[in-house]
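Expect sequence, tokenised fold; for instance:
***
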Amino acid sequence: MSRPQALILDLDGTLVDTLGDFVAVLDLTLADLGLPAVGRNFVERTIGRGGEHLVRQTLAHVGAKAGLFDHAWSLYQAHYADVNGAHAAVYPGVVEGLALLSELRLPLAVLTNKPAAPARELLRRKGLDGYFRHVFGGDDFPRKKPDPLPLLRTCEALGQPPSATWMVGDSRNDAEAAHGLSLIHI
């Protein structure tokens, strides 16, 4: 393998352990709706495809009425803005790794399915925002990971072809997006 010319990093579960944030936000949202809380294990199995997916799956899990999504989504977003980062921790070694990559002058970007504004705010609250040339969220492109389009656009923003860019992530979505991108550029 040749040395990468740029790196794309996922956020939740890769740079920052945000599971506690999701559990807290869902608990607040469900309490507002008069619905039972879901456990940490359920949230851990359900996260990774964006907030809308998480809320829909949670509502289905607790047996909520189908038409409740819009109200639940609004509550979720409001609570997330308040909670963002409060129950999250930067993984050990992340700051040191980002500092090393900065010394190597590798252009870095974050690509997450989380909406861009809360992603940027989380990075700011955790002191990681200064390391990245770009931060793209799930609302920055017409499709989200696992579709390869966000990776392709992020490579373009970094000024490097996909063949010279490495993606670091923690989920099947990240792997499927990277695999899909490799199929496009064979």
User: Anything to note?
Assistant: The mean pLDDT is 93. The CA atoms of residues 85 and 160 lie 31 Å apart. The first helix runs from residue 19 to 32. The two ends are 17 Å apart (CA to CA).
